[in-house]
Amino acid sequence: MLELQDKSLFVSRCLVGGEWIGAASGETVAVDNPATGEIIANVPAAGADETSGAIAAAEAALKTWRKRSSTERGALLERWHDLVLENADDLARIMTAEQGKPLAEARDEIRYGASFIKWFAEEARRIYGGTVPAPTTDRRVLTLKEPVGVCAIITPWNFPNAMITRKVAPALAAGCTVVVKPSEFTPHSALALGVLAERAGIPAGVINILTGLPAAIGKTLLDSDIVRKVSFTGSTRVGSLLMAGSAPTVKRLSLELGGNAPFIVFDDADLDLAVEGALASKFRNGGQTCVCANRLLVHDRVYDAFADRLAARVQALRVGSGFADGTQIGPMINDAAVDKINAHVADALAKGAENLTPRADLPAGHRYVAPTVLRGATTDMRLADEETFGPVAPLFRFSSDDEAIAIANGTPFGLAAYFFTENLQRAFRVAEDLEFGMVGLNTGSISMTVAPFGGVKQSGLGREGGREGIEEYLETKAFHIGGL
Ligand code: NAD
């Protein structure tokens, strides 16, 4: 049984118009603990009726929410932020129970998630319109910023808190109302945020949360004329389905999709820094992050030294339940994830890669996979083209800058890229040549509240966080005044 200081944060109902409801059909979806496979709760399988109810509640709430001053909206967000931090321990425990990540990482995510609420509470006061110089003296032209309206927020399981706050906070700050559909694997983290939003005084209907299977909820959200925007984080496959489904009603879209991040170690790199960067980028959240290094490209001259140092560190990583002290790699989210990771490793080994980190000490339980460093990776292997989404670091070899850039850019994805060099000219040249939305030089961590986050190519549309994040939830109205 999950131990919490405040048990009322663990809710297994949908939030619609301020009411905590079940599905009219009575159907539910089981949520399990990835470390044990045990069912921790059943949540309502919301369908078209509950989704229509949530959209109607968001539409009703929009009328008054958009008219509140930005100071008032910001103050309510500030209160929500404070409550999230006050309850960080319980929120982290709920997350680890349904997502599996080590408790320390879950706590970090709660703080990271809260930081978006704070940031956008402050940004609410900086939604500026403008004045436009008119072509004749009898005219004035102003630009007014207005909320987009009701937004559908669809989020993944890998960051069950922060992927929600990174969207909901700017939406609310801008004056929008939302219908949130969290991942079916991690609904309780979303529902706990709903409890705290209610406690903070955010009015009924401003945030609605639907649990259940995606197809019915997704279709009702897409078909609705009232929903004016879809903000989605998840796979490129589903993102492109949502894009097609948004076409008939011409919705606005923000899409944070899959990645296939290159991590380039040049021959002049500080190898200790590069190893630290690889550990941070590749092994956080068990490698289940969209920005995690998928392909490590290492210059021929430093390949062996880097491989040995990284392998030694990876061999020492502790695998286990997210609740156990000292765990660094928790269980993977589900069986499909484990199968994909194992298939990628098997394919690489069959095509000539060498496993530098064999281990025989994995804990019992079917969702644990070994953190692995693969020497001798080549571009014909599956893990060169597909997101592995697990703790596997394949090391590719290169011998010139042009070759490294060509391999790095040789993917339909363009989310994050990393490179390590001590040479200033190379730093600028490579940063400019990489076709990615985010580039890290001499660092493996690039996710922060203050900077825009997002991708190019098939990694998505739009930016979250930073100054840009709130724009995704605003329309610009041109106001023309004549007869002066
Ligand atoms: P997913 O695409 O399977 O699911 C994401 C969400 O979409 C879930 O809530 C799911 O229920 C929902 N969904 C699925 N089918 C739907 C449909 N037909 N209609 C409406 N909703 C639907 O992704 P996932 O497995 O949860 O997450 C992993 C993926 O997310 C990876 O590809 C990862 O790279 C990506 N991701 C991207 C970012 C980013 O910021 N770019 C961040 C985190 C994860």
UniProtKB/TrEMBL annotation:
GO terms for biological process: gamma-aminobutyric acid catabolic process. It comes from the Bacteria. The keyword Oxidoreductase applies. It comes from Pseudochelatococcus contaminans. Keywords: Oxidation, Oxidoreductase, Potassium. The active site is at 256. One of its GO terms (molecular function) is succinate-semialdehyde dehydrogenase (NADP+) activity. Coiled coil: none annotated. This is Succinate-semialdehyde dehydrogenase/glutarate-semialdehyde dehydrogenase. Residues 20-478 form the Aldehyde dehydrogenase domain. Its EC number is 1.2.1.16, 1.2.1.20, 1.2.1.79. InterPro entries: Ald_DH/histidinol_DH, Ald_DH_C, Ald_DH_CS_CYS, Ald_DH_CS_GLU, Ald_DH_N, Aldehyde_DH_dom, Aldehyde_DH_Superfamily, Succ_semiAld_DH.
